[in-house]
Amino acid sequence: xxxxxxxxxLILLLTFLLAIPLGKYIARVYAGDKTMLDPIFGPVExxxxxxxxxxxxxxxxxxxxxxxxxxxxxVWFAYGILILMNQGWLPLNPDDxxxxxxxxxxxxxxSFVTNTNLQHYSGESGVSYLGQLTLxxxxxxxxxxxxxxxxxxxxxxxxxxxxxxxxxxxxxxxxCTRILLPISFIVAVILVFNGTxxxxxxxxxxxxxxxxxxxxxxxPAAALIAIKQVGTNGGGFFSANSAHPLENPNFITNMVxxxxxxLISIALIFALGYYLNRKxxxxxxxxxxxxxxxxxxxxxxxxxxxxxxxxxxxxxxQSAGSMEGKEVRFGSAASALWAxxxxxxxxxxxxxxxxxxxxxxxxxxxxxxxINAFYGGKGVGLLNFYIFIIIAVFMSGLMVGRTPEFLGxxxxxxxxxxxxxxxxxxxxLILAGTAMSxxxxxxxxxxxxxxxxxxxxxxxxxxxxxxxxxxxGSGFEGLGDNxxxxxxxxxxxxxxxxxxxxxxxxxxxxxxxxxxYIPENAGTLKxxxxxxxxxxxxxxxxxxxxxxxxALALGPIAxxxxxx
Amino acid sequence: xxxxxxxxxxxxxxxxxxxxxxSIIKLNPKILFRNPVMFTVEIGTAxxxxxxxxxxxxxxxxxxxxxxxxxxxxxxxxLLFANFAEAIAEARGKAQADSLRKTREETPAKVMSDNxxxxxxxxxxxxxxxxxxxEAGDIIPADGEIIxxxxxxxxxxxxxxxxxxxxxSGGDKSSVTGGTKVLSDRIKVIxxxxxxxxxLDKMIALVENASRQKTPxxxxxxxxxxxxxxxxxxxxxxLQPFSLYANTPITIAAFISLFVCLIPTTIGGLLSAIxxxxxxxxxxxxxxxxxxxxxxxxxxxxxxLLDKTGTITIGNRKATNFYxxxxxxxxxLIECATIASLAxxxxxxxxxxxxxxxxxYRHPATIGSAADLTLGLPQSRVIRFSAETRxxxxxxxxxxxxxxxxxxxxxxxxxxxxxxxxxxxxxxxMISSNGGTxxxxxxxxxxxxxxxxQDIIKPGIRERFERLRKMGVKTVMVTGxxxxxxxxxxxxxxxxxxxxxxxxxxxxDYIRNEQAGGKLVAMMGDGTNxxxxxxxADVGVAMNSGTAAAKEAGNMVDLDNDPxxxxxxxxxxKQLLMTRGTLTTFSIANDxxxxxxxxxxxxxxxxxxxQSINIMNLNSPQSAILSAVIFNAIIIPxxxxxxxxxxxxxxxxxxxxxxxxxxxxxxxxxxxxxxxxKLIDIVVSSIL
Lengths: 564, 688
Fold this sequence. Notes:
The complex is a heterodimer of chains A (564) and B (688). By secondary structure, chain A is mainly alpha-helical. Chain A has helices spanning 3-31, 38-52, 62-86, 102-113, 123-126, 129-158, 168-193, 221-230, 251-276, 279-306, 309-313, 331-344, 359-371, 380-399, 413-443, 454-469, 484-514, 530-563, and strands spanning 204-207, 213-216, 405-406, 409-410. In chain A, the strands form 2 sheets. A two-stranded antiparallel ribbon of chain A has the order 1-2. A two-stranded antiparallel sheet of chain A has the order 3-4. Chain B is 52% helix and 15% strand. In chain B, helix 18 (483-493) links the parallel strand 18 and strand 19. Chain B is elongated, with a radius of gyration of 33 Å.
């Protein structure tokens, strides 16, 4: 086994080992138990609540939670557009970057509020430092809002019969201060010590070995990069994201950044187990997610480490794997690991060019986003998984001869309706978006959006919509996407794909929490068994495969078979 | 199980003919609209018909005429098969109901008006509240309740049981069913249901499409299936611009075939048949359900309340031993016990006389004429059993003999100033702890001994309870016995809990308690005082012999009056849900193979590279598409027997059951179509 593979295994093991105690800690935070950070943040929170006149102890129903979430999101969205469209003359703009056009500001503001971080601009020249700081704030609060939703789900699953599910502001603020902030701080410090800039000064000028002078962009990067990774945001400081030498200087920072991608998402699974005192259920969910993740990772590792067969036949040495679009300091295995993690978890940061991945690796990155529930984004990954559980419970409940129930609550018509709307939304947005763009290109080939014709060009469009709908934010690139069509269509998709998959599961959880609790008996299907895990996995795999098979066949699959 | 259950093959000629006719009538879009999956297939079929005409008119871009026509025909066949499945299930249910309905053809009814004048009317003209007279040899014209008289009745037309039963006014056995025959005596009956609204009529209407409401679970499943249909509408519609981008023209036939193959037609076509078959299976077990929901709920039951007598134990208790008090001669006890039981009509009373006879004692009254109202004992006064005194007996000139429950007798004895002998107290405890029921006998308020009554537990009942336990159903025995006796029998029979010294309110309280804990409860009952509990229970099974109030309160009626029927009902409910679940899983799993058949066929000309995913190595694009649709069509009739019979339920625990069904219907559902489509392709390509 070579060192590249060993480092991949090491990174994953370290992630899992860190996730378990972190999960226990998160469970304590959401359960309202004392933590060691209380003395630091307790007073700050109290002050904030007093200023905003919020009673953080008031119990809220699921509807009130959603209203609170949507209200503050609308405010953020408007504030973001305002800043981005005026950043040119506002302070903290040492490089004199211009204000954004309305469609780009619309796209960018949605992109960061929805935790997507799709960037149709380039960080060095597209935003001022004030813009960067605003976006960084969004990276905290969008992740915090997602985690607050997971906390509400936990609360709902725990209730025997209740209409109120805790307080949104309490969950939201605690997610930010007790979980995201301390972890980001640790990551940022490691980055700074490894050479990532953290300054408010403008571009630096250096003289290269050839004697040329080069302008080097810098700024408050380390802080933003940390939360970009930790909060599954993915929107980098620099255009090249974590492939940029200042954003991700060496293998150590690469390891730290890789671990930060799925860490909280996995920890939330264990937090669920500790919070509900159903550790077996947590292990079942972890098992299914990790199984799915590994099934994407292993072939991707294989394809990236073996390189492009067409190049091999041309006599080009590919012993280092497929290195097109990859950084030599990371290598093909670490890049493949990052690519799969970032797409599985709705992160969207990159340390290599996804456009250059071998075709089937490209397919697995897309599948990760199309499923969007193997770990998934902060909080919302679990919500997506919850929808799949509802579908799996419904089918397997029937198969054991009982009307379906999950954790003692009967799943009936209303819940199924909501679950099906959420399930349908993702394929609808991705396929409809790609279909409309394909049709526009068919009518107007002169638009010239695509760098590559044929199957690969199709993949570029499919990837862009998949990434928008999964709130992932990574780009396949090779797509001229800063046009009104792409800015607006992706913006609308990000909006729908963020809020409906939050509203749906929270509504289901809220409705179920109000229902009468049915005690388990020998005939009850238990959700924490391996068999049910297999069922859930099969439901996810088959439903997602069936939804996207035709599109993937015309993109990466056709490309792969034309290549071999 | 009744005799009716065992016979009837799945496909009778007459039923099949009727079903075939119905499957064409059901093509009417208005009817098919209720089933979203099959309705979209109908739209696809209609579109293919238009395409066929278009191709016949000279269009060349859509493939040859024969191919288009074949696709059209196969799609039409898919629809017909699905309709046939529903129609055959309906026909079977109807045939079953008709055989019951036959018993209530027009019969003359002797109606008695308020002023006592008797007129003869046809049974169809009877209204609720009418009073009619039936005498020996008459067919009872309508469902009703006896208000006067007692009669033996032959109910074999309904239950298949040939032994006549006794029905009399006033008690819990006052209900008569239309179509049954009075064998002796004369009864006055009041009609309890409007014409066309008897249980049987309701049942028949349920089986027929018109009034059949979708059950909640069926609706939820329909939503799931509708969503699966929608997702494939999205997939197929977006495929059109994709193929334009990729410069790959796709024929309309290929589009529609892909769509029809992907949507869950298998379960969509069989869903209503499964529901009807569930009610039909209940009917075959001689249980009439008032709604499909009741059958579904039966599968979910957590707790069932069972009466001890008749369910857990055979019939009634029998006297097995006499225990004389110290200083009393056994013969004296036997004589007193016999005398006290002479006027006792209960089976227990009779069994005391029988036991005495085996000990060699025969009272003159039992030898002489039964018409002797003094029972050979002049100046006697019979004291009947009452719930207050809980004793019965007889008063003679100088003797007052009583027998009764221990505590009631003790009270009486002590009131009279005597001491209850500790020896008999010990005997009573001994009898109780052995599961017997002690009766204490007194003469002139002095205890002279005890009688032991014993229950006989039905053979095989323990295994049935074990089976229920594995299904997760808790069994509760309801008995009037004292707690000691109840505990003994409960342990011996293997029930999980018992209600001793039960009064009707106790049942109701128990049910409410369980329900408050989120459990679903079933009970069986026949008496008017059972009615509140029957109504409260999630599944209330009333016995057909029970009072009208009981039958009105319950949501099922058992024609056989068999208290163990609840167990069958639970299994029927579980089978119903399982059949739905497994066939849904099977249907979805099938799609994997269909994709591998059709997708390479769609792109063969423009993207030859995609031939690598033609892993079944199907002959040509046209044969591949045809094979997939043919497989999709014929799987429906192949699964009709399974839909009608139901997937077998095995009480092996939920996880094991899921594993088993997932292997058979999930994995099987993935693999079977690969083989099936390949085989069909071999046949099809040899014909093309």
